[in-house]
Amino acid sequence: MKAVSSRWVHEEIGERDFAWQEGYGAFTVAPTQRGEVCHYIAPQEEHHRRRTFQEEYVEFLKRSGVEYDERFLW
Predict the structure, then answer these.
(1) Of the candidates 57, 49, 53, which has an alpha carbon nearest to the alpha carbon of residue 25?
(2) Three-state DSSP class for 57?
(3) What 3-state class would DSSP assign to 35?
(4) pLDDT at position 41
(5) pLDDT in tens, 59-69
(6) Quick check: 20 and 4 in contact, CB under 8 A?
(7) Using one digit for the tens of pLDDT, what is the confidence trace for 14-47?
């Protein structure tokens, strides 16, 4: 997934500096939710001034019913 998506970002979007961070998580959404996802992503810079990525990621895990051990997240 990482190799294919990285190639797509480099070739289709032209973001040559794009790179995955060392750890990552992936969540899928239905195509019908595309507009909602785009609306959510657009203000991320401002959003993360109020709430950390770590806080939000743990909330995603909980809302998705994913079991996790916080010792291995960070």
Answers:
(1) 57
(2) helix
(3) helix
(4) 85
(5) 989 998 989 89
(6) no
(7) 888 888 877 777 778 899 999 998 998 898 888 8
Helix (H) or strand (E) holding 63: helix 53-63
Cα separation, 67 vs 10, whole angstroms = 33
pLDDT at residue 35, rounded to an integer: 93
Residue type, 34: R
Distance CA 6, CA 9 (A): 5
Strands, DSSP E only, in the chain?
none
pTM above threshold 0.70: no
Tell me if 42 sits within 8 A of 48, measured CB to CB: no
For residue 9, the number of C-alpha atoms closer than 13 Å in the C-beta half-sphere is 12
Tokens for 70? Answer: 């916080």
